[in-house]
## 1
Amino acid sequence: MSSKRISRDGEDLDPGRLPQHVAMIMDGNGRWAKRRLLNRIQGHEKGADTVRAMVEACREVGIPFLTLYAFSTENWQRPKREVDALMALLNKFLQNERDELQKNGIRLAFIGEIARLPPRVRQSLEEVVAATASNDKLRLVLALSYGGRSEIVRMARRLAADVAAGQLVAAQIDSEWISRHLDTADIPDPDILIRTSGEMRISNFLLWQLAYTEFHFTPTLWPDFGKEEFFQILRNYQQRERRFGKVDTGADPA
Ligand code: FPP
């Protein structure tokens, strides 16, 4: 047992055993609002504060990749009013946080079918992505209009097109090829997935990439989720033994 004191700000974490990539399913905004007799949109607004806190937390402790499931392909089926509000909130976030991201060396990236986003949101997104492209402290990846199955379908179509064009033969297709042709091509697989609100499913998030990821489910609703609980999850992660299907410890699957 470690005799180190448990700090509220994560300074007791072992920097050598931090996850390199944390993925989060931000769930429970609607229930958070309902419990307070607020509307769902107010829940999403409060959820945006947790987004800021998580970005700050990853930056502080030195986690280089954070992926947030901000809007799924299925979320397009929500009432138009809610979809519009989520898009407006995203746009506001992109515009308001641009300078803060820049100041803190954060690079913004996205995965998903961003062609489906309203043009103004897409434009803000592309602007911030371009402006922050050379930052290297933290890569903040927003999953937007993202679905794991749709990502795999898009990859399979490219694969078929490359084979049809005579640029690819079956023997060249291996898991590295597939990884390189997903939206996450230059992003390592997540080391840990955190889902808030007590739901224990992955809801079409990063289906390929989560093969060896550690999962953590917390009953806390996303707007109530904060740095203190996040650091506690990281402490717990640092105690886990990752075997990647092997019997020895600490080995990388590659
Ligand atoms: C799930 O909660 C949450 C979403 C579908 C949207 C997530 C968006 C945010 C946290 C805010 C904005 C994001 C950024 C990046 C600025 P839910 O509505 O499904 O909650 P419920 O299950 O309790 O109804």
## 2
Amino acid sequence: MGMKSDIKLIDENGLRIDGRKPDELRPIKIEAGVLKRADGSAYVEWGKNKILAAVYGPREAHPRHLQDSTKAIIQCRYNMAPFSVSDRKRPGPDRRSVEISKIISEAFESVIMTELFPRSSIDVFIEVLQANAGTRCAGITAAAVALADAGVPMKDLVVGVAAGKVDDTVVLDLGKEEDNYGQADVPMAIVPRTGDIVLLQMDGDMTEEELFKAMDMSMEAAKYIYELQKDALRRRYAVIAQEEKEEIESIEEGIE
Ligand code: UDP
């Protein structure tokens, strides 16, 4: 990242290595409520990324010195499975995952109504099962759905999405080759309803004009990803409603 490389990332038709147009996302699938033991959960497939998010809480924060008497604390842990990347990743936290965990926690602090839960902790686990560039954005997108599935009160969902620059072209949602050989990558977390930006990072270099173009592309894409998140939650609520109906029916049968 940073230098223009000799590897051709945009072909003569203006298409990218995987055939996408500059402003095209990889295919995204979202499912809510995939884990029984967590308070909320979500599974996201985003291109070749596979990511699971689980939420516990709000629950009493432990150890107690972590407690804040005015609001809940958000503790996010982003973790890459050893088998998630091509060279086996050494298990456990490293500098990168500690930093990503911190910035994701801060992004969610902007939308979760933490003041409703003093002395509590809301724990968010992001497990990267398969990585192919863009895992922090896919992880944020999954975590937002898991938080909603857990019933954590939020001002809105949060969408993670990146844009950047490859072969002197501004592109949306960089794939692995583009991440490796591209010129810039700008991951963002966006609150779709307000357009607020709660996370913004940049790796590489681009002009101010290119940066604004990249941010515009991500804003536009966030609206679409937001709809996918809400669809996943609607499907989840339909399943819950059906399960409750069946439970009531079986209780009624027992009474008769
Ligand atoms: N990656 C890897 N090993 C690592 C960290 C990252 O192979 O220890 C790969 C992985 O495919 C990841 C990509 O490099 O998705 C880009 O990593 P980056 O740090 O830019 O974060 P991401 O784009 O996943 O948020």
